[in-house]
Amino acid sequence: xPKDRHVKVSPKTPSLFLxxxxxxxxxxxxxxxxxxxxxxxxxxxxxxGLKWSSIEGVTEYLVYRQEKGGDFQKIGTTGEDRYFxxxxxxxxxxxxxxxxxxxxxxxxxxxxxxxxxxxVGGFKAPTWVGIRMDQDKLFxxxxxxxxxxxxxxxxxxxxxxxxxxxGNAQGSRFVDKAGLVKxxxxxxxxxxxxSEFDETPYSEERSHKYGxxxxxxxxxxxGPKIELTPYPLTFKFDITxxxxxxxxxxxxxxFVNSQGLIYVTDVLNATVHCFDSAGKYKFSIxxxxxxxxxxxxxxxxxxxxxxxxDGKDQVYVSDIKRNDIQVFNSEGKFxxxxxxxxxxxxxxxxxxxxHVLDDGSLVxxxxxxxxxxxxxxxxxxxxxxxxxxxxxxxxIFPDELTVTPDGRVFIxxxxxxxxxxxxxxxxxxxxxxxxxESAGHFGRPKGITTDETGLIWxxxxxxxxxxxxxxxxxxxxxxxxxxxxxxxxxxxxVFFKDGxxxxxxxxxxxxxxxxxxx
Length: 518
Fold this sequence. Notes:
Blueprint: H1 16-34, E1 38-44, E2 47-52, E3 61-67, E4 73-78, E5 82-85, E6 93-102, E7 105-108, E8 112-115, E9 128-134, E10 137-142, E11 150-156, E12 164-169, E13 173-176, E14 185-193, E15 206-209, H2 214-222, E16 233-239, E17 251-256, E18 262-266, E19 271-275, E20 281-285, E21 304-309, E22 315-319, E23 324-328, E24 334-338, E25 354-356, E26 362-366, E27 371-375, E28 381-385, E29 401-403, E30 408-413, E31 418-423, E32 428-432, E33 445-450, E34 456-460, E35 465-469, E36 475-479, E37 491-497, E38 500-505, E39 510-516
Antiparallel strand pairs: 1-2, 2-5, 3-4, 3-6, 6-7, 6-8, 9-10, 10-13, 11-12, 11-14, 14-15, 16-39, 17-18, 18-19, 19-20, 21-22, 22-23, 23-24, 25-26, 26-27, 27-28, 29-30, 30-31, 31-32, 33-34, 34-35, 35-36, 37-38, 38-39
């Protein structure tokens, strides 16, 4: 029998088998490297968008789609690294892949699937809060949409059509400052997108006129003049320093008690300061605390905002972050805490405006719920008036309020730029003011009070003015105009007492004190 034959292979000579394996692996690696990488497939505005990584030297990509139970069909070609499929049906699921042609064969990407919503159900278009102009910008606000991941903002110069996307936001706020022209009106709609990139239809349209054109300013100046009554003031001093000489950080409100002590909410420092009648610091009430609003120690603050002092010199402090009202004596000793149950499915209390009646009842704005309330001394609601909206009797985040001795309630609308008057039982009486730059109009009204002659004074954080009105809404005086020797900076809280005017200037971190009269 023949002997077995053995073949000796030199270690320097690769076997045919090894060479074959290497060639196969190399070809596979080349094919894998050349395959497109389909990175995303998403449904937006009625079409499916596909995005893949581009490959150097490739000039044409083939797009394939498979419907349920069917085979992949080529639906288009493109030289770009993206493709939009517009032929889609509600409720259908599509699977996509992309290919290139190499060596006469198609090399495919991986697959991505997209389900086209038949009905977005509870995922609705955003609801507007409002648009306002401030410092040459337009601020857009809307209510957050449950399930929304982001929002698209669309703008047109024509009502009802021609919307162009000008940006997006993850929160419910957007600042438009690009290409705005004074005197022009801009029309906005919003859409929301969820994590599946489903996008809602357009929201309702909202418009806003961006300031006054030069022609409108000239026309206003040439028209009938409103004769304003001079309101002479003499600057006395500024209150700037508080505890240990530290400055205040965005104060919110000011009130003076029967002994002439001046109380100021220092919002971002989370305390209330007391000064003597000459503006000298005396003491502070409370300190900054952290924790859940439902389990906080008495006497501490998160964001003390609004003040009221009753006939017993008790100091009422509304905290818009701990959602309550705390009461202290004139020396700063804690007396009690007032909590208001705003009701089921309502936001927690945020009393931007506060007034205490002689019988201890409280009148307050429930800002987060777009209404105002009357409560008992312990916070039980006895009257609620208002809802979100722009019609009479409705509010969009009402701010401060004031109550006259005969029970007339005047409430500031910072978004709608108006003052509304009500009776204590919630009956609507009157409204005055609108958006504008001339006397009797507002840019961003904030604070409100009455002086010792019966005029209503409204502070405006955008025009940096105070305007005085009769109880019927006729403008009579204006302070911090271009003709005055001094100017306010973002005024909010305002108070008159014993022939003096006290004005909180939030962003200037001070309270200005004036003598009223010649």
